[in-house]
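Reopening this one. Same input as before:
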Amino acid sequence: MTDRYAKYTQFEFDRPAERVLRITLNKPETYNSLDAEGHNQFTYIWRHIDDDPDISAVILTGKGKAFSSGGDFGMIETNMNDSMARMQAWKEARDLVYNIINCNKPIISAINGVAVGAGLVAALLADISIAGKAAKIVDGHTRLGVAAGDCAVINWPLLCGMAKAKYLLMLCEPVNGEDAEKYGLVSLCVEDDVLQDKAVEIAERLVAGAPSAIRWTKYTLNNWYRMMGPAFDVSTALEMLGFAGQEVREGLASHLEKRRPEFDPKSPI
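Same output, byte for byte:
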């Protein structure tokens, strides 16, 4: 791989077809979680892809049994205890979403196994999202004790409708690949053993298409997301406000202790 991507050390890169770049989240021992450095790399790689004249389509997937388990517990704890880290996390959460939306190259996600957090952001903001039947999509924010931020406000109601979005987001209800397709959260669901082949096939079709027409179509359709910018800013800001509160401390402790959280039912909000 060229030096263009040399600094993105937490991912694997290959070219499964002409003018197709495949990015593989590469931390299988922790289900492809992202630490602070990995989150930063994941946020800004899309700007380099946008500028890369040698690729026309991107595939994003995860190594091993999972797509991504999201931010690791260390990053969560730092956000809880360090106000500067929270501000950086808010900036990256915002930049990640807009960098994916504004990347001119069509993005295909091949969702294998669990998809949570920042990984799920990219999986569902991808222009074409393909889930294996064993995929497990879950937005775990409220289970952790923070508001559903990331890209939830921008695209979940548009993809699956407001009623279903509220049900899934407020209850952290997991969705398998087949139900994700049925709800409209993903473009396609396929057998797990053909997931990568299907992603490459679609990438090749995109590469063979009219590049400007495809990129302009993406740009105009993504204006639906851009219109949700003010609501998105509020959602991510409230997510970060939650990291300074008490609920997230119980949420994190319950994850670490592998038990159900016991939140105080009283709230001034």
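So the earlier flakiness isn't reproducible anymore. For the record, The two ends are 51 Å apart (CA to CA).
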